[in-house]
Amino acid sequence: MKVEKDIGKSGFYHYYPVVPAVVVVKSGDELDALACAWHIALSFDPPLFAVAISPDRHSFKMLKKSGEFTANFLTFDNIGIIAAVGRTSGDEIDKFSTYKIKTLPASEIATPVLKVAYAAYECKVVKSYKTGDHVLFIGEVLAVHQRGNAFDKKSKIPDLKSVTPALYLGVDHYLGIKSFGEVKVGKEDILTDKKVLKNK
């Protein structure tokens, strides 16, 4: 395996692909959104979800004021929205009117969710940390929205027959996958079938 010590040259994109979140923020009457590939679930109890946002983003200032956000997950059919809110600035345009983005009211906070989202979290910021050139906003999830057929009712995982989540590959590239070899490998499978541990 090649070792590259010039991190900038290597791209630092090896953690992709990821499902991007469209983070919506509202401050007063102003509404903005940005695409966020750097996000993570942190806790089940309480339910915590974090997004990393650059202080250079217009949404950052609004989020600092409001202390709340929604994280919205879109299908591959809607990569145009993800790319548009990710590559334009709320300092220059009203993204919602310019791109005709429709919203639905949240149940616990003032910030809305996106109508096209197959899943969304309503989050109240409980902590924030400066992490290099980004700030990690940790939100307590107060409510979860999901499209009726988007998730398997038993396993709770995405039902890829019903939704095709957008995946971000980095550098403005996106991918949509229905399924190309889904498999379940749990503890019982590892203990009873050593073939699953085969390295190539």
CATH superfamily: Electron Transport, Fmn-binding Protein, Chain A
What is the CA-atom radius of gyration, in angstroms? 18 Å
Detail the poorly predicted runs. Answer: none
What is the overall silhouette? globular
Structural class: alpha+beta
Termini Cα gap: 14 Å
In order across it, which strands form the biggest sheet?
2-1-5-8-9-4-3
Which second-level CATH architecture applies? Answer: Roll
CATH topology: Pnp Oxidase, Chain A
Helix content: 10-25%
What series of H and E elements makes up the topology?
A: HEEEEHEHHEEEEEEH
Number of domains: 1
Strand percent estimate: 35-45%
Count the beta strands: 11
CATH class: Mainly Beta
The mean pLDDT is 90
Biggest sheet features = 7 strands, antiparallel
Number of helices: 5
